[in-house]
Amino acid sequence: MDPQTQNTSLQRLQNVENRVVKVLELAGGVMEELASPSGPKKEFVNSHCREFMQSMKDIQVTLREEIKSACEYRPFEKCDYNARIANEICFQKLEYVLTQLDDLKQTADRYISSD
Fold this sequence. Notes:
Layout: H1 3-34, H2 42-72, H3 81-114
Helix pairs in contact: 1-2
């Protein structure tokens, strides 16, 4: 996740946090209205409950998207470490084979020159 994406994700989560606070304030307002000595105002309770439910749905959608995005995050996906290590190992093997071939050639040259 590049820094820009990560920053955007953190901003969205900050917005979700702010919406959660607002939802709790709505719930508190409804609780106060229900506890009112003069009785709750039906219109007030209904509008706040609708707003509460819509906000909860929005929060849920945003959190699902963030979780999905976080699950898709693969920090080493574009890393070439494995390829570089494999290349280095192959290079070392080739150097070893070349050394062995040089030794074999020297041995063969000595054998031919001794005849």
